[in-house]
Amino acid sequence: MHPIERLRYVARASGGDQRMLVRETAGALRGLQFEPAGLVIACRRIVERHPTSGPLWWFCSSLLTSARPFDAAHQLASEVEHDRTPDHLFDLLPDDATVCVVGWPDLIGDAVMRRGDIRVLAVDADDEGSSFVRRLQRADIEAEVVPAAGIAAAAVAADVVLVEAMAAGAGEVLASPGSRALASVAYCSEVPTWLVAGRGRRLPEPLFTTMSTRIADVREPWDADAEPLPLALFGSVIGPDGPADATEPGVLDAECAMAHELVKSSPM
Q1: What is the pLDDT of residues 162-174, one digit of tens each?
Q2: With contact defined as beta carbons under 8 Å apart, do 197 and 178 qualify?
Q3: In which order are the strands placed within the sheet that holds 119-123?
Q4: Burial class, 122, CB count within 10 angstroms (exposed 0-12 / middle 13-18 / buried 19+)
Q5: Residues 204 and 130 grouped into a single domain
Q6: The domain containing residue 203 runs over which residues?
Q7: Does one domain contain both 227 and 117?
Q8: Do 216 and 106 lie in a common domain?
Q9: What are the backbone dihedrals phi and psi of residue 149, each rounded to the nearest 5 degrees, phi first?
Q10: Three-state DSSP class for 99?
Q11: What single string gives the DSSP state of each residue in 133-172?
């Protein structure tokens, strides 16, 4: 596939695995070898087409602040591809636990399928919960779809509530719609609530604010593709370096330098 077509494919893709999106973007950009101005426009367009993908914002920001961006692309993609967050979650989940999630969380799904002894309650969000449950059941994992009306009951029934971050700022997180209600009920019911923030989810505050604003810029906020959650709802944060107390200072410090070019929109 020609790099231009590959880049268009990535821009059009929706709902894909975040690691795949970063890998394909890295391959396409390396193949094009843009001049600096062209690279800025390409990165702007990629994040505009994927406003909820924290790893793509992280990748593009890291690329634009690198002295050798095309050399850095492969290394950045490798960091996302070999994210150890699922490994840590695999080790931390209690034996035979019931966990509650929203939609189809990639990293959580990896850990759960490798464990095999975890029961999953998946709150349906845009039919992703149903798809996730079908995938788990094909792998002989016990899983049930939870309708939106049952989100509170599912939170109370779980041993652990897991929320996978799309992106995170210093004290706030973006996650799938329904995550705030799930985490809030779990917090009030004293059910352990863990934030799963894989590689590329922690962004500089100005970048996170820009991302949040674009996602929220819809006529009906309840139709937004993601919703904000305060970090205070979580007891632990599970990331590439393992677990951390959510109250620990700097637990969501940015993983990349700030590329101010991404704050502006690309010319159409």
Answers
A1: 999 999 999 999 9
A2: no
A3: 143-146, 119-123, 98-102, 160-164, 193-196, 236-239, 242-245
A4: buried
A5: yes
A6: 85-245
A7: yes
A8: yes
A9: -65, -20
A10: strand
A11: HHHHHHTT--EEEE-GGGHHHHHHH-SEEEEE-SEE-SSE
Tell me if the pTM is above 0.85. yes
Q: Which residue has the higher pLDDT, 17 or 31?
A: 17
Which residues, listed in sequence order, are joined to residue 143 by a DSSP beta bridge?
Answer: 120
Q: Are 18 and 176 in contact (CB under 8 A)?
A: no
Q: How many domains does the chain have?
A: 2
- What CA–CA distance (Å, rounded) separates 22 from 207? 17
Q: CB–CB of 66/56 below 8 Å?
A: no
Q: Between vectors from CA 89 to CA 82 and to CA 207, what angle results, nearest 5°?
A: 60
CATH number for 22? 1.20.120
How far is Cα 205 from Cα 138, in angstroms, rounded to an integer?
40
| Residue 260, domain member (yes or no) | no
Beta strand 143-146 with 119-123 is parallel
> Hey, what amino acid is at 7?
L
| Residue 20 within any structural domain of the chain | yes
